[in-house]
């Protein structure tokens, strides 16, 4: 059981979500985040003056998956979120101690 | 804060002193019937063409009156919510409310001061070309039968009041995101009194610039150069913001505000004919043409210069066009309006995009770049394009009267010098008495929270 954190381009969210649903992922958390990597920032122009905007809007998807499908989930995200340009984002694979479903008190994979 | 309260009390005492003195005056000599004391026309043309028509006693005209009531309400809309939205949307999200509050409070302050003493000092009987007389303090002697030309004097007073209010509010665009609200309140009172009122008298109240023959249909010098120069002085005295970038909190508000300003400007310019007539029609069509062309010409200039046709560019261009056509609206023909419109999208653009960064002053929302520069452009072009076929009072360079251009330049230079010097003195006084700038922490957390204890957006 691991947690996958994927930072992706915002317009790719729907595609990624639908594809994950299709392979049996039925829960996820998303957050609107800002950050920069190799893409750096972008430039906005107000009244003829250019302003460098360092942090770009991205979407962070957090999804917890059983060990058996980790590779499949990662490859699905990569396939759907990829445009080939810089700024496509990153995936962080994190180890996870436990998951608890608050309503029932279930632990581990049963709670995912 | 204490000093602020004391100063406010002082100002109120000063005002009420006026009111009492005026009451006494009213009790002693019987006030003369005012009907024939028609206030001088706002635009020079009316007063000059008047002698031909006026020998009979002026009569109220219901058509003129109806239009001027509506036009006055139009101009009010320019400050609230027009300018408040335009400026508020351009401010950072932590300073939006404070920016709107500056326009709002100014409108209220001027509304009061104008009926107490602003009107009489601007439009009362001329004293040596410098200032109006005191006979209409607290609107003494103005009654329901008093006329200004063919409309009730009450309407004329409010019409002029809305001009005074927006002029003061315009300057706030250069001051935002760092000025103490208390300092702005005091500045509003002093600036309207010591700068707006005298200049309005010189140009429209029968003062020396009117006698010189300077053409200013609806306020290129009085409103826009005046406010623009005050904006520049404020930017210099206040100094740079800690984060001197233009980061509009909400450009949709800016577009809404620009639209309302454009709409209100029909009242501002066409209303300055002070009649529902052909001259109002000419001012109306010139206003619309120049605004539309300036919006498009600003957009294309920007498109070439920075590769993007921005929405803010369209809105800014429209305002620059409206500013530039303001002095010319009732003098030029449609060709003049087209040329003024095109230039108004180019000259203020470069003043904002190229010259401002080079000089390094922090005019937050380009009140000088658009109003000061656009107003100067319009005032000068009026001296070139004024067509006597539109308005016999104005004959420009192209129609064989090069002297008009000189007169316009004199009016521009006098306004710039006077506004610059007196605004500077006011700002330094305010700075010495109550302080003019919020401290660093308040500036960074935002003026909405530090000055008003509120937030514009709780999303």
Characterize the structure shown.
The complex is a heterodimer of chains A (112) and B (459). In chain A, helix 1 (13-22) packs antiparallel against helix 2. The longest helix of chain A is centred in the C-terminal third of the chain and has 12 residues, at 70-81. In chain A, a hairpin with a 2-residue loop joins strand 3 (42-46) and strand 4 (49-53). Chain A has helices at 13-22, 70-81, and strands at 2-8, 29-35, 42-46, 49-53, 56-65, 89-95. Chain A is α+β, with helices and mostly antiparallel strands and 112 residues long. The mean pLDDT of chain A is 93. In chain A, the strands form two sheets. Chain A has a four-stranded antiparallel β-sheet, with helices on one face. Chain A has a single domain, classed as 2-Layer Sandwich (Alpha-Beta Plaits), CATH 3.30.70. By secondary structure, chain B is mainly α. Chain B has one domain: Ammonium transporter AmtB like domains (Ammonium transporter fold, Orthogonal Bundle). In chain B, 68% of the residues lie in helices and 2% in strands. Chain B has helices at residues 2-27, 44-53, 62-90, 96-123, 153-171, 181-204, 208-212, 220-238, 251-270, 278-306, 311-325, 334-359, 367-385, 402-433, 440-445, 447-452; strands at residues 126-127, 131-132, 147-148, 151-152. In chain B, strands 1-2 form a two-stranded antiparallel sheet. Mean pLDDT of chain B is 91; it is low at 16-54. Classes of the chains: A alpha+beta (112), B mainly alpha (459). The A-B interface holds A 45-51 and B 245-248, 302, 305-306, 308, 310, 312-313, 316, 349-350, 352-354, 357, 366.
Strand order of the main beta sheet of chain A, please?
Answer: 2-5-1-6
Largest sheet of chain A: 4 strands, antiparallel
Principal-axes geometry of chain B comes out as: globular
Termini separation of chain B comes to: 32 Å
Q: Please report which band the strand proportion of chain B falls in: under 5%, 5-15%, 15-25%, 25-35%, 35-45% or over 45%.
A: under 5%
Strand count of chain B: 4
**N-to-C SSE string of chain A, H for helix and E for strand:** EHEEEEHE
């Amino acid at each position: 059981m691991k947690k996958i954190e994927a930072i992706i381009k915002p317009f790719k969210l729907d595609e990624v979500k639908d594809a994950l649903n299709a392979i049996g992922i039925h829960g996820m958390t998303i957050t609107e985040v800002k950050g920069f990597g190799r893409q750096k920032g972008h430039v906005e122009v107000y009244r003829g003056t250019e302003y460098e905007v360092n942090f770009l809007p991205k979407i962070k998807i957090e999804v917890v998956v059983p060990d058996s499908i980790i590779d499949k989930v990662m490859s699905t995200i990569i396939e759907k979120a990829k445009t080939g340009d810089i700024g496509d984002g990153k995936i962080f694979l994190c180890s996870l101690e436990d998951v608890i479903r608050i309503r029932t008190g279930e632990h581990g994979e049963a709670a995912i | 804060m204490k000093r602020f309260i004391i100063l406010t009390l002082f100002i109120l005492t000063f005002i009420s002193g006026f009111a009492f003195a005026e009451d006494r005056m009213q009790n002693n000599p019987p006030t003369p019937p005012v009907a024939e004391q028609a206030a001088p026309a706002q635009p020079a043309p009316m007063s000059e063409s008047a002698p031909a028509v006026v020998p009979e006693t002026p009569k109220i005209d219901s058509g003129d009156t109806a239009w001027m009531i509506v036009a006055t309400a139009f101009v009010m809309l320019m400050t609230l919510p027009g300018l408040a939205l335009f400026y508020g949307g351009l401010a950072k999200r932590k300073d939006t409310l404070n920016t709107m509050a500056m326009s709002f409070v100014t409108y209220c302050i001027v509304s009061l001061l104008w009926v107490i003493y602003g009107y009489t000092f601007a439009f009362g009987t001329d004293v040596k070309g410098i200032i109006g007389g005191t006979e209409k303090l607290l609107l003494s002697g103005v009654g329901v039968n008093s006329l200004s030309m063919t409309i009730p004097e009450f309407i004329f007073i409010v019409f002029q009041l809305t001009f005074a209010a927006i002029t003061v509010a315009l300057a706030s665009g250069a001051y935002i995101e760092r000025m103490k609200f208390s300092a702005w309140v005091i500045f509003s009172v002093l600036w309207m009194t010591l700068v707006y009122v005298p200049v309005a008298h010189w140009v429209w109240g029968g003062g020396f610039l009117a006698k010189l023959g300077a053409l200013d249909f609806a306020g290129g010098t009085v409103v826009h150069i005046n406010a623009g120069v005050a904006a520049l002085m404020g930017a210099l005295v206040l100094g740079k913001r800690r984060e001197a970038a233009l980061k509009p909190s909400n450009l949709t508000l800016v577009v809404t505000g620009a639209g309302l300003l454009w709409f209100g400007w029909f009242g501002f310019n066409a209303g300055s004919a002070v009649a529902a007539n052909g001259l109002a029609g000419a001012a109306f069509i010139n206003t619309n043409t120049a605004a539309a062309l300036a919006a498009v010409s600003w957009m294309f200039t920007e498109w070439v210069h920075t590769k993007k046709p921005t929405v803010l560019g369209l809105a800014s261009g429209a305002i620059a066009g409206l500013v530039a056509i303001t002095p010319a609206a009732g003098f030029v023909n449609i060709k003049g309006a087209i040329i003024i419109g095109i230039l108004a999208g180019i000259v203020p653009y470069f003043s904002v995009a190229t010259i401002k960064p080079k000089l390094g002053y922090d005019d937050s929302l380009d009140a000088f770049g658009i109003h000061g520069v656009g107003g100067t452009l319009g005032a000068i072009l009026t001296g070139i394009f004024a067509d006597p076929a539109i308005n016999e009072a104005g004959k420009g360079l192209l129609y064989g009267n090069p002297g008009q251009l000189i007169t316009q330049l004199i009016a521009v230079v006098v306004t710039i010098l006077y506004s610059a010097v007196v605004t500077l003195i006011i700002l330094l006084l305010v700075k010495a008495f109550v302080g003019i700038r919020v401290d660093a922490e308040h500036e960074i957390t935002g003026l909405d929270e530090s000055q008003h204890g509120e937030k514009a957006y709780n999303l």
